[in-house]
Amino acid sequence: MNKALLALGAVLALGVTPAVSQEAGFLGGIQFDKNADKYEVRLGGGAYDAGPFTPESFDGGVVNGEFLFPSFDVLKPIGSPRPYIGTDIAISDDPIHVLYAGLNWQAYLTQRFYLGFSLGGSVNTDSKRTNDEGSERDLGSNILFHLQATAGVDITEKLGAEVFLNHISNANLGPSNDGLESTGVRLTWKF
């Protein structure tokens, strides 16, 4: 499943490259507050328990959804991040579902292509699971940190697409820190 997501990400990047390489931005400056005044809905799916920092002992899919709010003026000095709330709903035999919230930054390298980063916290339906093969996933707590990385493109002024990586863990603050990740693709709608 990871190879398919990487291939899809590469196709997205290759499809975007010719269009964005001629746009102003990258060496002319990175824009952080482009969508600071907008709401945004993100919806997609991907692979459950798949990412570079967690063991892939569980498998399945994940339905991902997020809602972003406009940034507050007080956040302008730190790049106008937008507050967000989101969820990973696992489609697996041994699921751990996640509800998360925090702040999201977007750095536009061109007028249409951006990289994103989110930092916040999560509440999870379980802190420990054992799958049918006997592999255990011990997150250490039901309340954890949430980190997210994205790469996206604005297809139109309102519609976009992005690849995402969600990482949930306790940053080694607990007795166990197996972590949980999801990777996937989603559509975005700004209004």
TrEMBL record:
Q: Which residues form the signal peptide?
A: 1-21
Key word Protein transport present in the record?
Answer: no
The keyword NADP is assigned to this record? no
Assigned keywords, A-Z: Hydrolase, Signal
Q: What domain of life is recorded for the organism?
A: Bacteria
Molecular function (GO) terms for this protein are:
hydrolase activity
Q: Which InterPro entries match?
A: Lipid-A_deacylase-rel (IPR018550)
Protein's name in the database: Acyloxyacyl hydrolase
